[in-house]
């Protein structure tokens, strides 16, 4: 803000319109003031005298002295002007000098001070204001003196004349504020005028009393000097208190600006820009201007570092920096200062490198203070060239800028830490991509303005055996590499996130399904390239599912509790789009595809699957789930050796369900243990019932891969056998070939435990999975079951016939019983018998039967063979 005794106008930000309006107003003030001065000069003509020169020089000296001991009053709303002792020499001048001499002395001291301080943009206005002050003072002094002539003291005229000068300049300043479009409340204006009157009253009283005492009291000059000294001491005490108050206000205002800027930055969405860099230049310019106003500096420069890897961001308040390029940060002596305390440099006595830095800035002197945290340089604050005093920056200025810089450093460090925390909250620490919350926030913002967008769900699939062998550190390296490939393929502007594990998500803004499919194919090609791990190369599978708000019709949404709800007429949010993309991804995986778009029918499938999973336990308890049995007979004797237990579910809403529909869903939901326990218990109950009737019929129960991963499973089976009093050889446990061979090392301890119990172990669907003779030889299994797809094709496909024959021969060579599934024709049965296959199972023998129908089937189609030890053997009749 302006800081001289005559700068009673607002300090404005550079604005061509305001500058032009202020210039026109200044010219008008000067013209009116000169015209008024000429009129008063004609009214009060000058009478030359030899004493006028000396009196004039003394008045010039007096006005110069009071100019140097002035203090600024800072008013909210952008107004600043100065309080000084101007009324004291003015009051004396009214007594001892004519109007023209006092006016000349005031102009010489005031305008000369402005020019010496290089304040040129307001010379016209301040010249007019000074002329107006003297003109108003002499006009009031003459009028009041004429009215009091012979009836009152002359000092009263001088007192009122001196008091009218600050009133006139204050009213002129308020008029300038109004013309320049700056708002100022009535209360603030009233307080300002009242303070001016009080201080003017004090100064005028000192001037009048001093003159009267000096001229009318013997040895009065010492009393006047004592009075001036007391007033001067009181002034400096008041000035110090006022300076401290203004410093505290400035510090509070700077803190508020930084806090508001921080709140606005924290409220921004989690884009690629951090909260610390998401700053408004206006906020920092406001901080720089407030520091400049408080210091009375020609220029304040804030150099702030928001990114450790980026150069400092520069904000300049006041005079512009020189046009020539600034030196590099490492070569600038003022930017390499150690510590965090304030330095005061003058070009005249500075070291060469400091002098060079000041020359680069076009500054004669500078206050410089680094902004530091514990280990980081956050920025530098520079104040150039003091305007308000001859002596330049003082100790009060050093304290003020040091305290303000300390607060700024704390605020910037807090914002840096907040930005780090916010970045960590919205980004994945492994890949640096967004995490799920960050992707949700960013995608929600973009979908609000770009509803025609597509959400992609990308899953990177690495074989568990590979990840276990390499370890989690190597798996993380593969995940990081996959994230980089995704970023390179999609570009920096595409929102991309790592959700968990090897699952990624991306938002294609403004894309349709055709474009999304092309991008998905590109991602599959990019991510499927083998990943180098030291000297190894690891292959990974990739599956992509994608969805869009355009497919919202008939979509299933979830409520707060996670239960599905009807999505008709509701715009899907990001979480729902991710769920739908995940449904599409699962559909692609189950269908053997690499890319699949979401369709509304998938949503209904998801709802049905969700209902099946959530209702399964209740179905077990209410009897909706039951066990059917399919007989197995020996070839060629056709003796009934046992049955296979097959689960069935009659749903009250969906009717009879295919096991291929609900068993995978139950297994994926982690409920397969309950299903296994249920079927095993039913099977053992059935075996015990047959044993109580004198029949030895075994039951085969299918196991899940999950059971093979449970090391306690053999103990659970042993407990069940003991509880139902069933010999282990009557229980057969069937395991799919793919389930065993996927991780034979993990399955082997469980299989050995079951084999030790004496339970019969069978490998189901043999020939369709990861057939490995080496592992098959190591596994303690007793049977292999030929997959029904080969048995179906034996009559028409020589290749299937060859496969069946090979499996029979392989099983016998390993000492295993061979069972053929899917026997539906007499020809197939006869061919299997001719090959030496041991057991047949299929619709030719019987469909799966409920317990009641199985009992009827046994009674109708079997006869008891007598004379065979203690056991009863059932033989199938023709």
UniProtKB/TrEMBL annotation:
PROSITE patterns cross-referenced by the UniProt entry: EAL, GGDEF
CDD domains: EAL, GGDEF
UniProt cross-references to Pfam families, sorted A to Z: EAL, GAF, GGDEF
Keyword Acetylation: no
Annotated ranges, domain GGDEF: 451-600
Regions that span the bilayer: 22-45, 52-71, 91-116, 128-149, 155-180, 217-238
Residues covered by the EAL domain: 609-862
SUPFAM superfamilies tied to this protein: EAL domain-like, GAF domain-like, Nucleotide cyclase
UniProt KW keywords: Membrane, Transmembrane, Transmembrane helix
Keyword hit for Amino-acid biosynthesis: no
Designated name of the protein: EAL domain-containing protein
Source organism per UniProt: Actinophytocola gossypii
């Amino acid at each position: 803000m302006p800081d001289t005794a005559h700068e009673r106008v607002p300090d404005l930000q550079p604005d061509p319109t305001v500058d032009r309006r202020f210039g026109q107003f200044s010219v008008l003030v000067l013209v009116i003031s000169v015209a008024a001065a000429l009129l008063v000069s004609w009214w009060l003509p000058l009478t030359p005298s030899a004493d006028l020169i000396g009196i004039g020089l003394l008045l010039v000296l007096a006005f110069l002295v009071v100019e140097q001991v002035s203090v600024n009053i800072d008013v909210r709303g952008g107004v600043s002007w100065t309080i000084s002792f101007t009324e004291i020499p003015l009051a004396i001048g009214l007594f001892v000098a004519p109007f023209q001499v006092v006016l000349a002395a005031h102009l010489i001291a005031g305008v000369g001070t402005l020019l010496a301080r290089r304040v040129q943009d307001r010379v016209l206005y301040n010249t007019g204001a000074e002329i107006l002050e003297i003109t108003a003072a002499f006009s009031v002094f003459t009028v009041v003196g004429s009215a009091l002539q012979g009836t009152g003291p002359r000092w009263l005229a001088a007192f009122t004349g001196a008091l009218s000068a600050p009133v006139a300049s204050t009213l002129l300043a308020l008029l300038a504020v109004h013309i320049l479009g700056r708002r100022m409340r009535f209360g603030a204006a009233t307080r300002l005028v009242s303070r001016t009157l009080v201080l003017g009253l004090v100064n005028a009283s000192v001037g009048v009393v001093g003159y009267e005492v000096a001229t009318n009291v013997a040895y009065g000059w010492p009393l006047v000097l004592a009075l001036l000294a007391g007033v001067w001491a009181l002034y400096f005490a008041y000035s110090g208190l006022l300076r401290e108050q203004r410093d505290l206000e400035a510090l509070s205002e700077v803190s508020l600006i930084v806090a508001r800027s921080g709140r606005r930055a924290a409220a921004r969405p989690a884009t690629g820009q951090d909260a610390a860099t998401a700053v408004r230049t206006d906020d920092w310019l406001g901080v720089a201007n407030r520091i400049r106003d408080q210091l009375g500096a020609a220029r304040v420069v804030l150099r702030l570092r928001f990114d450790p890897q980026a150069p400092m961001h520069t904000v300049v308040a006041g005079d512009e920096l020189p046009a020539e390029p600034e030196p590099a940060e490492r070569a600038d002596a003022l930017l390499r200062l150690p510590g965090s305390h304030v330095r005061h440099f003058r070009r005249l006595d500075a070291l060469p490198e400091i002098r060079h830095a000041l020359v680069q800035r076009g500054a004669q002197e500078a206050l410089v203070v680094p902004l530091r945290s514990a280990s980081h340089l956050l920025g530098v604050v520079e104040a150039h060239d003091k305007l308000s005093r001859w002596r330049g920056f003082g100790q009060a200025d050093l304290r003020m800028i040091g305290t303000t810089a300390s607060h700024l450093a704390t605020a910037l460090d807090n914002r840096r830490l907040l930005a780090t925390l916010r970045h960590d909250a919205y980004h994945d620490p492994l890949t640096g991509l967004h995490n799920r919350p960050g992707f949700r926030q960013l995608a929600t913002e973009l979908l609000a303005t770009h509803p025609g967008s597509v959400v992609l769900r990308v899953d990177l699939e690495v074989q568990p055996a590979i990840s276990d062998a390499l370890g989690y550190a190597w798996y993380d390296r593969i995940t990081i590499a996959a994230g980089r490939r995704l970023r390179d393929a999609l570009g920096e502007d595409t929102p991309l996130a790592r959700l968990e594990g090897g699952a990624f998500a991306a938002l294609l803004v403004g894309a349709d399904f055709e474009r999304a499919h092309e991008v998905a194919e590109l991602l599959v090609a990019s991510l499927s390239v083998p990943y180098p791990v030291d000297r190894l190369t690891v292959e990974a599978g990739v599956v992509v599912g994608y969805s869009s708000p355009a497919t919202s019709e008939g979509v299933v949404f979830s409520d707060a509790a996670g239960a599905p709800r009807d999505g008709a007429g509701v715009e899907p949010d990001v979480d729902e789009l991710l769920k739908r993309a995940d449904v599409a991804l699962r559909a692609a995986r189950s269908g053997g595809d690499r890319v699949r778009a979401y369709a509304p029918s998938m949503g209904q499938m998801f709802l049905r699957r969700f209902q099946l999973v959530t209702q399964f336990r209740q179905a077990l308890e209410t009897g909706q789930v039951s066990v059917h049995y399919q007989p197995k007979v020996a070839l060629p004797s056709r003796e009934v050796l046992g049955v296979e237990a097959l689960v069935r579910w009659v749903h009250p809403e969906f009717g009879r369900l295919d096991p291929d529909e609900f068993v995978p869903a139950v297994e994926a939901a982690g409920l397969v243990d309950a299903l296994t326990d249920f079927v095993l218990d039913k099977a053992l109950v059935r075996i015990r019932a047959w044993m109580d009737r004198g029949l030895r019929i075994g039951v085969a129960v299918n196991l899940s891969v999950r059971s093979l991963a449970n090391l306690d499973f053999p103990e659970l089976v042993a407990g069940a056998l003991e509880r139902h009093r069933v010999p282990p050889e009557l229980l057969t446990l069937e395991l799919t070939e793919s389930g065993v061979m996927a991780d034979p090392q993990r399955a082997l301890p469980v299989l050995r435990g079951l084999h030790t119990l004496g339970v019969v172990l069978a490998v189901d669907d043999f020939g369709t999975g990861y057939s490995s003779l080496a592992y098959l030889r190591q596994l303690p299994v007793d049977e292999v079951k030929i997959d029904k797809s080969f048995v179906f094709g034996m009559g028409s496909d020589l290749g299937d016939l060859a496969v069946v024959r090979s499996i029979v021969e392989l099983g016998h060579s390993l000492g295993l019983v061979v069972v053929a599934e899917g026997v539906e024709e007499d020809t197939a049965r006869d061919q299997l018998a001719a090959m030496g296959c041991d057991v047949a199972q299929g619709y030719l023998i019987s469909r799966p039967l409920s317990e009641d129908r199985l009992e009827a089937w046994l009674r109708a189609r079997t006869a008891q063979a007598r004379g065979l030890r203690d056991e009863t053997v059932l033989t199938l009749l023709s």
